[in-house]
């Protein structure tokens, strides 16, 4: 059974109103709710009937459209080839309006990456079974399979997994991937404590390798080299690396 979001429609609407109508600002509201500012912008774009959506030139709506434009353009172009004019054109707004929301194109792409990552994480939180297996290696498999399904369901996920030329010094996607490495490492450390991994196995190195493999699978699916069903099967195989005998896992 999927886990319900801790933010129902009423709470999202209240957050959007506080951020934009009351002038508190999306960054402050995001801090108060312990979410990323990109989440506040996305809620503003999703909530029908809100003041944010009713204003065709509203701050929230234009920002979310620019984010979607950035994600779409990275399907067809590398980062270096995209200009603020192209971003504005894809969003259906003027360049002036774009610069009123974001100072640079780097800021737009940063928001595009953060928005995709935030949506993936929220989907994982909602779709992870409420009652997970007590076995850490089984939890690992469940987590990575659910995460794969969520990644493939998010329209802008390719900005996190495909090579679209985003300079690391401009947009750091690595910090999002590190979140998954940390979770996988914790599960592997627990598996080692229970004797399910060999004493010489390094859970941290295994975690990096598993997540790197999963990232490669996601890149292949999102890049069109394989389909989502095959991708989920491959992810399950990678997740099961930790469930083999300690001698095999340790190499």
From TrEMBL:
InterPro entries: Homeodomain-like_sf, HTH-type_TetR-like_transc_reg, HTH_TetR, Tet_transcr_reg_TetR-rel_C_sf. One of its GO terms (molecular function) is DNA-binding transcription factor activity. Pfam families: HTH_23, TetR_N. Residues 60-120 form the HTH tetR-type domain. SUPFAM superfamilies: Homeodomain-like, Tetracyclin repressor-like, C-terminal domain. Residues 83-102 bind DNA. Keywords: DNA-binding, Transcription, Transcription regulation. The keyword Transcription applies. GO terms for biological process: DNA transposition. This is HTH tetR-type domain-containing protein.
């Amino acid at each position: 059974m999927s886990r319900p979001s801790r933010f129902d429609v009423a709470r999202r609407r209240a957050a959007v109103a506080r951020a934009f109508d009351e002038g508190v600002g999306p960054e402050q509201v995001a801090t108060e709710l312990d979410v990323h500012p990109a989440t506040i912008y996305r809620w503003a774009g999703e909530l029908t009937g809100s003041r944010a959506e009713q204003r065709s030139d509203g701050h929230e709506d234009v920002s979310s459209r620019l984010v979607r434009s950035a994600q779409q353009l990275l399907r067809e172009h590398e980062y270096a080839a995209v200009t603020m004019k192209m971003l504005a054109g894809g969003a259906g707004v003027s360049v002036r309006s774009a610069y009123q929301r974001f100072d640079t194109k780097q800021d737009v792409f940063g928001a595009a990456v953060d928005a995709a990552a935030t949506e993936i994480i929220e989907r994982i939180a909602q779709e992870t079974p409420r009652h997970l297996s007590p076995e850490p290696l089984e939890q690992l498999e469940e987590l990575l399979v659910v995460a794969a399904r969520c990644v493939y369901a998010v329209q802008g996920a390719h900005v996190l997994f495909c090579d679209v030329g985003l300079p690391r010094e401009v947009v750091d996607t690595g910090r999002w991937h590190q979140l998954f490495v940390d979770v996988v490492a914790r599960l592997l450390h627990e598996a080692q404590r229970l004797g399910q991994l060999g004493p010489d196995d390094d859970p941290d190195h295994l975690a990096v390798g598993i997540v790197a493999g999963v990232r490669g699978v996601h890149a292949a699916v999102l890049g069109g080299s394989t389909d989502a069903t095959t991708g989920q099967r491959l992810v399950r195989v990678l997740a099961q690396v930790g469930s083999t005998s300690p001698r095999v896992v340790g190499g």
